[in-house]
Amino acid sequence: MSLLTILFCIVVLVLLITWGKVNPFLAFIIVSLLTGIMLGVPLSEVTTVVENGIGGMLGGLVIVIVLGAMLGKLVAESGAAQSITNVLMRLFGTRKIQWALMTTGFVVGIPLFYNVGFVLLVPLIFSVAYQYKLKAVYIGLPMLAALSVTHGFLPPHPSPTALVGQLNADMGLTLIYGFCLAIPAIILAGPVYSRAIRQMESRPLSTFQAEPMPEDQLPGGFNSFFSALLPVLLLVVVAVWQLLGTPKGAAGEVLAFVGNPSVVMIIALIYATFSIGIGQGKKMKTVMNHYAEAIKDISPILLIVAGAGALKQVFVVSGVSTELVAGLQNWNIHPLVLGWLIAGIIRVCIGSATVAGLTAAGILAPVMQDVGADPNLMVLSVGAGSLLFSHVNDSGFWMYKEYFNLSVKDTIKSWSVMETIVSVVGLIGVLILDVFL
User: In 219-319, which ranges are continuous DSSP H helix?
Assistant: First the structure.
């Protein structure tokens, strides 16, 4: 009954947005309230659950998304994006730019939280698309596939790191196995699949589009790369330091503070304000105007992400995930497939990859010794399942749709299919590794 309720509410959400032309944020709020009532959440608590979902989602994202948009706007308006693009194109050429962006997404995505990587690297995709008249979806999907794979498969990302602890896996082995799965998954979901949709039209947000500047007015290549990727560099340093051993006392507190994505973005934006803003002859007022324009463009995305958070919270509070997996535990199937399937079903119904992965791990952890599965492979199987078919109840779906300015249909055709390919290839890779380990 719960599954039918979820399917019904998702259909209502899609129809409100596509057929009814209702604003996505308003549609999310209406459907979240409806879903809560239908799933048995007490009437006196439904609105509180929705409000908590909005606050919980924005609490962790609003600073990163807004500051990332500001940095992206400055990188575009200062000519830094153009300078970065020129360097990449000279190194790889137009034919190989997909692979250049994919490699960048993978390297950057290993230490970087997904949402931070998204808002930092999407402007680079748009810059290449605008400057060289290439399709944004075609060249951008490989980079986003790389970010998604690192988010779902590889520690030190929050979800796989938590899964390692829950399932008593080994961090190092999980990382090594994860690399083995990540490369084919990214290639198939990125450069290979994007060929099927290479003509897909999109009109990305104009906030990241700047008029081409003369070469002599552009920031230098090193300055452009360093300013744009400073958040990445800071997080890499912090991640490596933590892997080598978290310092105690005051040093540990400072490291934790500096390594927080919000603080990293603030530091990076302050640096960029002077390095590619004021340092390039712009007035502070002009730079601040760029930031104000970025906020205006990013506000609809924040509302849509907030709406997705409200719907997700209704699913979580109603306990529907526990009910769904209760009937799956006694299925006579391979335990690694079961882990993938449980995470996948929760992901499709709830939308959050992190919630799906951690919920599946909570179900499987008590029986890991009995099923005889390799815990390192189970981490990867659950992680792959948690990426299955992102759609309208996932904030990542809406971030991608709104940034690339696509229809819901084209978002499903590109984003949702790409995520599904990553998930399925991940499962196949896990089963192959299981044969040899």
Answer: 221-244, 249-258, 261-272, 284-318
